[in-house]
């Protein structure tokens, strides 16, 4: 019954591949593992194994619930390696139409983190991030955009708040090939980066879905793989030339 409900829910939205890095307005049922490398201005390399991903589920119509397992951060120097924070997310899709019925989607979601990180590899306090997102397709081309605010639940003035706007343009080149470019802008209010803006442009590629049962339209089990690089385009940036690799099992 769960899978039948998820199949019916997914059939009411476009079959776009979720971007490599940026958030997305459509619903998805997936187990996801990402690997993310950053290089700071002081040439400290950090590998993030997990990158705040996990399992995404569709338990109800138009609804997605996510559990993000704590990632593990490994630094080249100057910091102690350790686990990051546990995260959760809830998303509700308000409007959608598949490729034959408008090719669009509109949703709202809220992310939350719990400070489970050790050795300062996580946030000092819980955070919440309310967001809205929308997308529109034009044949093989689609654009999705999400806007959200990260808010610490305590000491917000000291730790700082931020606004993030992600826009992703994606083209479906072939049955199992997608190319995309994302613009990610973040504005900081309060904290160490008060008044600053950071911007990245991120080209990426995705391969898949490689279905386990390609001849059975009722079976969704498949693998997807992708990679992207974030390039800073603002004078202020906390890191640059960030690499992101993603592996996904959709079901």
What would you say this structure looks like, in words?
With 251 residues, the chain is mainly beta. The chain is 5% helix and 58% strand. It has helices spanning 2-10, 156-159, and strands at 30-39, 45-50, 54-60, 63-68, 72-75, 82-83, 86-97, 104-114, 127-138, 141-152, 161-174, 177-189, 197-211, 222-232, 240-250. Strands 1-3-4-7-8-9-10-11-12-13-14-15 form a 12-stranded antiparallel beta barrel.
- Which residue ranges are poorly predicted, with pLDDT under 50 across at least 5 consecutive positions? none
Radius of gyration equals: 18 Å
SSE pattern: HEEEEEEEEEEHEEEEE
Strand order of the largest sheet: 1-3-4-7-8-9-10-11-12-13-14-15
Q: What distance separates the N and C termini?
A: 14 Å
Give a quick set of tags describing it.
251 residues; mainly beta; 12-stranded antiparallel beta barrel; 5% helix; 58% strand; globular
Write the layout of secondary structure elements.
Layout: H1 2-10, E1 30-39, E2 45-50, E3 54-60, E4 63-68, E5 72-75, E6 82-83, E7 86-97, E8 104-114, E9 127-138, E10 141-152, H2 156-159, E11 161-174, E12 177-189, E13 197-211, E14 222-232, E15 240-250
Antiparallel strand pairs: 1-2, 1-3, 1-15, 2-5, 3-4, 4-7, 5-6, 7-8, 8-9, 9-10, 10-11, 11-12, 12-13, 13-14, 14-15
């Amino acid at each position: 019954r769960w899978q039948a409900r998820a199949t019916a829910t997914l059939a009411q939205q476009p079959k776009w591949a979720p971007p490599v890095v940026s958030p997305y307005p459509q619903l998805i049922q997936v187990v996801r593992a990402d690997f993310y490398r950053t290089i700071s201005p002081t040439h400290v390399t950090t590998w993030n194994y997990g990158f705040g991903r996990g399992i995404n589920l569709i338990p109800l119509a138009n609804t997605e619930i996510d559990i993000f397992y704590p990632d593990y951060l490994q630094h080249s120097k100057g910091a102690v390696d350790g686990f990051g924070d546990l995260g959760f997310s809830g998303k509700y899709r308000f409007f959608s139409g598949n490729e034959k019925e408008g090719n669009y989607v509109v949703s709202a979601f809220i992310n939350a983190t719990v400070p489970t990180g050790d050795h300062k590899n996580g946030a000092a306090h819980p955070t919440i991030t309310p967001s809205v997102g929308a997308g529109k397709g034009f044949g093989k081309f689609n654009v999705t955009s999400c806007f959200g605010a990260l808010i610490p639940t305590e000491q917000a003035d000291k730790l700082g708040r931020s606004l993030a706007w992600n826009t992703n343009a994606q083209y479906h080149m072939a049955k199992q090939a997608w190319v995309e470019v994302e613009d990610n802008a973040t504005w900081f209010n309060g904290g160490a980066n008060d008044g600053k803006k950071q911007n990245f442009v991120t080209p990426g590629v995705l391969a898949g879905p490689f279905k386990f049962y390609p001849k059975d339209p009722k079976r969704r089990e498949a693998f997807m793989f992708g990679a992207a690089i974030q390039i800073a385009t603002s004078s202020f940036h906390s890191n640059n030339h960030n690499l992101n690799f993603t592996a996904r099992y959709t079901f």
